[in-house]
Every structure is written in C-alpha cells, then in structure tokens.
Amino acid sequence: MQVNGQSECKQCLLNSSDTQYISFDAEGICNYCNYYATKIKELGSWEKRQQSLYDKIYQIRKSGEGKKYDCLLGLSGGIDSSYMAILAHEAGLRPLVIHLDNGWNSDIAVKNIEKICQKFNFELYTYVIDWEEFAGLQKAYLKAGVIDIEVLTDHAIYAILNKLANKFKIKYTLSGFNYETEAIMPKGWTYNKRDFLNINDIRKKYGEGLKFKTYPYVNFYKALYYFWVSKLETFEVLNLIDYNKEAAKKRLITEVGWEDYGGKHYESVFTKFYQSYILPVKFGVDKRRAHLSNQICAGRITKEQAIQTLQTKPFDEDSIKDEMEYILKKFNMTSAEFEKIMQEKPRLHTEFDSDQRLWNRYFKIVKLLKFGK
Ligand SMILES: [Zn+2]
C-alpha cells in the first residue's frame, strides 16, 4: 500500500504495510520520525534540561517534607526503571518503590528489585494479583483476539500508583519513559492503558464468568477523582539526562549487582513470549521494528545495522518450544486451544465498550458549563 506515492520511510524502518496510520512529509520522512524530532526539540538544550531536572527535584523534595515518602517509583527490574532507582538515590529522593506481581516476573527481575531496594534502603511495596484471576483475564484477551494484552498489566500499575499516591499524599511518580528509546510506537500496535470499560467488556464477554477480586482498576469516576484531587504528576527523569542504555546497564551491574535478562521488556516471561511470538505470528507486528527505528532517530545505530538485526527471527528457534510449553502449562491451556487462538482473526479493541463515551459526555458538559457562564 502506498501513502502519498510512498510506502516506506526514508529514515526509519516503518512502512505502510506495518502501520495504517503512517504518513510521509515532502522529504519522505514519516510522521513517527517527525514526532520524535518534535519531542526532542521540545525538551530543549542540555542546559535547559539540567535546570528543569534540578527544579523538579527541588519541588519533589519540598512536596515530601514531613511525609514518609516524597515520590513513587514503579520498578519492574528492567534497565530503565532500575536505573531510575540509582538516579533517585543520587538526587536524595525518598521513593516508595512499587512492584506488581502478576505471576509472570522472571526470577532475575525479582532478584534485581530486591538488590536495588536493599542497596539504597528503599521500602518495597509488592502488590500481588491473584494468579487465577490474572491468568483468566489474560486468557479472555487472548480469546477476544485484541492486540494489546499488556493493557492488563499496565492498567494495574496505573491503578496501584494512584491508590498509593492518594493514601500517602504523594504528588510525584518517577517514570522511566524516555523519547530516546520509546518515542516511536505505531498507533494500532498498542491500546489506551487507562480504558477500564474496555477491560471490563472483554472480561464480561470472554472471561467465562470471571469476577474482579484482587485486580486493581481505575474506572471513569475514580479517574476523575484522581485527576481533580490526587493530581499525581509523572516525572520523566530520563528525558532530562543524556540517557545511554549501555552505560546505564554497566553502572547497574557494577554498582548494584544487577543482572541482564536479554531483550527490551523481557523482565516478564509473558511479555517476552507476547512480543517475540504472539505479536509477530498472530498480528504481524514486530515491535523491534519500532525500537530499532527509535534507535536510528536517536543516532545510536544506522539504518543498515537496523535492517540486519530485523532480518533475524524475533524469537529464538531453539528455545521457543520450551517457552510455549511453560506458558501454556501456566495458563492451563492445551496446544490445540492456543493454536486455535493464534489462527483466529484479530479483533480491534474498539469493537468493545470504552471509557471514551463517558469522557466525551464529560467534556460536552464541561463545555456547556463554560459557555453557560
Ligand atoms: Zn520514519
């Protein structure tokens, strides 16, 4: 398929067969590359970023005066969030470290989290979701055939962060999100992580009677409350420093005894299988294409190097069978059931209910009230 007579970006690896939302400018550069450039430009010079960093650290410390913690830090055990812990310690911050146990964390990731909290004397709060419940929700997503199964984990983290922020009157949460490695992600490869009605509708239709017991969620009304009352602000620290993943990894290994576990977001056994097998095989989506494109934009690798990496299989052919066996056993699912799921046609998240209709109504009322004055 061609968009404006072009099918592939001149700079990155994205093309119109992979993403229906791609467009190209007069120079043949895609909207995702331009988004990256705009975001980096908005961050400004290094002097400006350093000043913003100092200002924000001061604000966070000030907001925490007289309180047990001054910020929250969600820790997965992966590089980005682990490195955030080093930075928080250096900045003299007192985070409450939060970890979600959804039953899929790799042993290495859990050890990394423990090492970090011990080293920096950070308090760790681990939220455990009932395994049968979480597996049931994930199976409902697999059966529904929607693309973003990770919504379930990300929504739960969002819910826990807000709940604890509200409980301890914490105003800031540190985030490891950064444009350097995560700005580029085609729309359509993921879904809105905050949409509770979408989760609930998929649960109702495919969850085989499953009820919420321990799964933490934020419905529309709670979201409004958090927005107006808690006002938890996300601070993307890594955007303000010269973040180099390799250098960060080296520091983590030497200073904390952190252990490497392979690919991006492979700290979770499920995420690894989802990204390297389910997404490419069922949905034709290889997230490495986005991650590598991001690295090209950041000037870390050349397009030729990226193409070479992409030519290798997204999964390890020697170990994928064992991984699948492990996952299916944990899910209590037969190979035939899984095969059927993999063969079925994908469905869009938008085919299910969404919080969006409530937000639309809310914004309509807000607009009416404004004009009514
Ligand atoms: Zn591009």
Index terms:
binds zinc ion; five-stranded parallel β-sheet; Rossmann fold; 53% helix; alpha/beta; 373 residues
What does this structure look like?
This protein has helices at 31-43, 46-63, 79-90, 107-120, 131-144, 151-168, 179-182, 196-206, 220-230, 245-256, 269-283, 287-297, 303-310, 320-331, 335-343, 356-372, and strands spanning 71-74, 95-101, 123-128, 172-175, 233-236. The chain is α/β, with parallel strands linked by helices and 373 residues long. Strands 3-2-1-4-5 form a 5-stranded parallel sheet, with helices on both faces. Helix 3 packs parallel to helix 4 (107-120) and helix 11 (269-283) packs across helix 14. The N and C termini lie far apart (50 Å). The structure holds zinc ion. Zinc ion (ZN) binds at residues 9, 11-12, 14, 29-30, 32-33, 293.
SSE sequence, one letter per element: HHEHEHEHHEHHHEHHHHHHH
Shape: globular
Which ligands accompany this protein?
zinc ion
- What is the distance, rounded to the nearest whole angstrom, between the alpha carbons of the first and last residues? 50 Å
The name of the CATH architecture of the largest domain is 3-Layer(aba) Sandwich
Number of domains: 2
Number of strands: 5
Strand order of the largest sheet: 3-2-1-4-5
For the CA atoms, what is the radius of gyration?
A: 21 Å
The helix fraction, in percent, is: 40-55%
Q: How would you sum up the major sheet?
A: 5 strands, parallel
CATH topology of the largest domain: Rossmann fold
Contiguous runs where pLDDT drops below 50 for at least 5 residues: none
If helices are DSSP runs of H or I spanning 4 or more residues, what is the number of helices?
16
